[in-house]
Design brief:
By secondary structure, the chain is α+β, with helices and mostly antiparallel strands. Among the domains are: 264 residues, Rossmann fold (3-Layer(aba) Sandwich), CATH 3.40.50; 126 residues, Prolyl oligopeptidase, N-terminal domain (Methylamine Dehydrogenase, Chain H). The chain is 18% helix and 36% strand. The chain is built from 11 helices and 36 strands. Strands 29-30-32-31-33-34-35-36 form an 8-stranded mixed sheet, with helices on both faces. A 4-stranded antiparallel sheet has the order 4-5-6-7, with no helix packed on it. Strands 8-9-10-11 form a 4-stranded antiparallel sheet, with no helix packed on it. Helix 1 packs across helix 3 and helix 1 runs antiparallel to helix 11. The longest helix has 19 residues. It starts with 9 loop residues before the first helix and ends in a 17-residue tail after the last helix.
């Protein structure tokens, strides 16, 4: 029998509600932004100049693309949080939405004609090249092979095709001429600049001529992981991560004309995106207790001294601990401003696919800190915070290093006097849930509890998940005796099954998402069952109306309040009387 889920802590529930009111703005795109304004529960599309709404649908907007003339916006809207979207066209004057439910898409790039007469996309879910006539509302569809990934990008007279096939380089093709512009290991994003296009291939930016493919310039910084870039005229502004810190760079004709570590108000911050609109570059900037805001990118690139730093309700510090092989592994810890000595601490990480883990704004962080807790983000090997070698060092058959790094950080935080094992809770979502759970079960004395959200916890059965085959290379394929032994050694389920009855085991909260289209619940249930068999405490909660991608604030609130209340109950750091401000979600 699994433990029951602890009730929500009223003080945590109230603090979370307060911090959620700040909203989450979106970057401007041709005068519009996909945002969640303060006090709103859902994302909508708003005019940048007036803030007035264009459309605030009940569903989930995965992506938008305004037409050049601003009269229409092409959208991808999912009815549920399962990321299965339908194509739609919004009239910006009236907000009227026309849906095309037969066209299924999922974050696919959309390309408008220069005269705004129509929009095209390769709808991955429908395996078709779709053209939507904006004037008549009619669609035409051409079949696309399900074995080839095609994406449309701007450039040249009629746009560019990016064509990718398993095991082959990606081709960039000029649609107007059929000419091959470039053959690259990967194509992440393509944007027009001046009379050329800038291509991000995952390791460098190249400016190419669409017709001939001639390279005008290339820029590469091996230590910088570019996460977003925008282009205007001859300038490119990119944001990314170097040495675990957020960086913004301006390029002029391929040469660096300005570069800064990102700060805001005199304190370190994170630039999570950049766009070019209305003749200027814009950046989205945030921090652990700094709600996100859109500002001119020039403010981040300027030499002007920062404004007077305001008193913050928390302090954020960087600690570095040494792994057994000598690697220096960082963690960023946010604490109450007056914190002294050991405190309840939530330690989280991602650590995979080269994705950087930075201390960005989530309402759960300041809500937890207000209750006297600390919140830490680990930058373990396998992530994208410290360059390609860092990512490779925790990839495939080396995935165990990321788990070991998390163990070193947890022990280091205890030794530094920031927490104690009985006050420490590990937490991770998706890939991070694998590392956190494996770490906690591999060293049961390490922490008091662990939270896994939407994670594939049986690494020998990744194929059971809808997107599991895409993860085989990340964790190490199971097609050899060496690979099987490696996966069995680090798999959270197999670590749970290896525990002996009566052993001290961290409390386990496994969260599965009711509308998850990437990870199924079976692994989480199996881990909980294995822990219960040896006398451990384990709870599985099915989060309603929640998916692996974007979610409405109601769902995020339930999720965040549940994790924080579990951490509070596990560490004995708060009274857990029934909440009066939020629903107590129980679903087992």
């Amino acid at each position: 029998m699994h433990d029951s889920l602890p009730p929500l802590v009223p003080a945590i529930d109230a603090a979370l509600t307060k911090w959620e009111r700040h909203g989450r703005p979106g970057l401007p795109e041709n005068g519009f932004a996909l945002s969640r304004p303060p006090g709103r529960r859902r994302h909508g599309i708003y005019r940048v100049d007036t803030g007035s709404p264009v459309i605030e649908p009940e569903g989930h907007i995965l992506r938008m693309a305004p037409s050049p003339d601003g009269r229409s916006i092409c959208v991808q809207i999912a009815e549920r949080a399962d990321e299965d979207a339908a194509l739609g066209l919004v009239d910006t004057a009236t907000g009227a939405l026309r849906l095309y439910p037969e066209v299924r898409c999922r974050y696919d790039p959309m390309l408008w004609a220069g005269d705004s007469s129509g929009v095209e996309l390769v709808a991955g879910r429908s395996h078709g090249l779709v053209r939507l006539d904006a004037r008549t509302g009619r669609t035409t569809v051409s079949a696309v092979s399900p074995h080839t990934r095609l994406r449309l990008f701007p450039g040249g007279r009629s746009g560019l095709f990016a064509e990718s096939r398993p095991g082959r380089p990606s081709r960039l093709v000029d649609r107007a001429t059929g000419a091959e512009v470039a053959v690259l290991g990967a194509i992440v994003r393509v944007l027009p600049v001046d009379e050329g296009v800038v291509v991000d291939d995952g390791t460098r930016l190249r400016c190419l001529e669409p017709g001939s493919g001639a390279e005008r310039w290339r820029w590469e910084d091996p230590d910088l992981r570019v996460t977003s870039f925008a282009a205007r005229g001859q300038d490119v502004v990119a944001v990314g991560v170097r040495a675990g810190r957020s960086v913004i760079v301006r390029l002029t004709q391929g040469s660096v004309s300005a570069e800064r570590e990102v700060t805001y108000g005199g304190a370190p911050a994170v630039a999570t995106g950049v766009s070019a609109d209305a003749d200027r570059f814009h950046a989205l900037v945030e921090g652990p207790v700094l709600p996100p805001r859109v500002i001119p990118a020039e403010e981040l690139l300027s030499d002007r001294p920062p404004a007077v730093r305001r008193e913050a309700p928390a302090r954020t510090e960087r600690h570095v601990f040494t792994a057994e092989d000598g690697a220096r592994v960082p963690v960023v810890v946010t604490s109450p401003a007056d914190a002294r000595g050991p405190a309840p601490l939530i330690l989280t990480c991602y650590g995979g696919f080269g994705v950087p883990s930075l201390a960005t704004f989530e309402p759960t962080v300041p809500a937890w800190v207000e209750q006297g807790g600390r919140y830490a983000v680990a930058q373990v090997r396998g992530g994208g915070e410290h360059g390609p070698a860092w990512r490779r060092a925790g990839h495939g058959l080396a995935k165990g290093r990321g788990i070991d790094d998390l163990t070193v950080i947890a022990r280091g935080l205890v030794e530094a006097g920031l927490t104690r094992p009985d006050l420490l809770v590990l937490a991770g979502a998706s890939h991070g849930g694998v590392l956190a759970t494996s770490c906690a079960l591999g060293s049961p004395d390490l922490c008091a509890g662990v939270v896994s959200t939407a994670a594939p916890l049986d690494l020998l059965n990744l194929g059971a998940h809808p997107l599991g085959q895409r993860w085989a290379g990340e964790f190490g394929a199971s097609d050899s005796p060496e690979g099987i032994a490696h996966l069995r050694r680090i798999s959270p389920l197999h670590r749970a099954e290896a525990l002996t009855s009566g052993a001290a085991v961290p409390r386990f909260l496994g969260i599965v998402l009711a509308e998850d289209s990437r990870v199924v619940a079976d692994d989480t249930l199996a881990v909980a069952d294995a822990l219960c068999r040896v006398g451990g405490g384990a709870t599985v909660w099915r989060a309603p109306d929640t998916g692996h991608g974007g979610n409405h604030l109601d769902s995020l609130h339930r999720l965040g309040a549940t994790v924080l209340s579990f951490a509070a109950a596990t560490t004995g750091s708060a009274q857990t009387a029934p909440s009066t401000t939020g629903e107590n979600p129980r679903d087992r």
